[in-house]
Amino acid sequence: MLNSKQRAYLKSVASKIEPAFQVGKGGISQEQAEGVAKYLKAHEIIKIKILDNSLCSADEAAAELAEMTGAEVVTVIGSKAVLFKRNPEKPVISMNL
């Protein structure tokens, strides 16, 4: 569980990155969730864009992807969501807060 300082720090990190995945009208597939999980293992943080033609809202898509990958939702703003999952073997993001 992230505390407010960690969440704020992760938001600042996420503000500098571009969305790596998109959720469209097809929704979230198992293959897409696996791709997000692999990306999280390498980078620990991911920004996802939910397209306007998607059948689910950004909140719903973020919650579903977080559940499927074991990640935490950092924030959802507009059509973008940020997820975080710590890599226990090789941490990428230093969070000494």
CATH class division: Alpha Beta
Largest sheet descriptor: 4 strands, mixed
Domains, number: 1
Helix fraction?
25-40%
Low-confidence stretches: none
Structure annotation, total helices: 3
Would you give an account of this structure?
The protein is of the alpha+beta class. The chain has one domain (4-84): 2-Layer Sandwich (Translation Initiation Factor IF3). Helix content is 38%, strand content 21%. It contains 3 helices and 4 strands, in the order H-E-H-E-H-E-E. Strands 1-2-4-3 form a 4-stranded mixed beta sheet, with helices on both faces. The longest helix has 14 residues, at 30-43.
Could you outline the blueprint of secondary structure elements for this entry?
Blueprint: H1 4-14, E1 21-23, H2 30-43, E2 45-50, H3 58-69, E3 72-77, E4 80-84
Parallel strand pairs: 1-2
Antiparallel strand pairs: 2-4, 3-4
Summary of the model, kept short:
With 97 residues, the chain is α+β, with helices and mostly antiparallel strands. It has helices at residues 4-14, 30-43, 58-69, and strands spanning 21-23, 45-50, 72-77, 80-84.
Record keyword descriptors for this entry.
alpha+beta; 97 residues; 4 strands; 3 helices; Translation Initiation Factor IF3; four-stranded mixed sheet; single chain
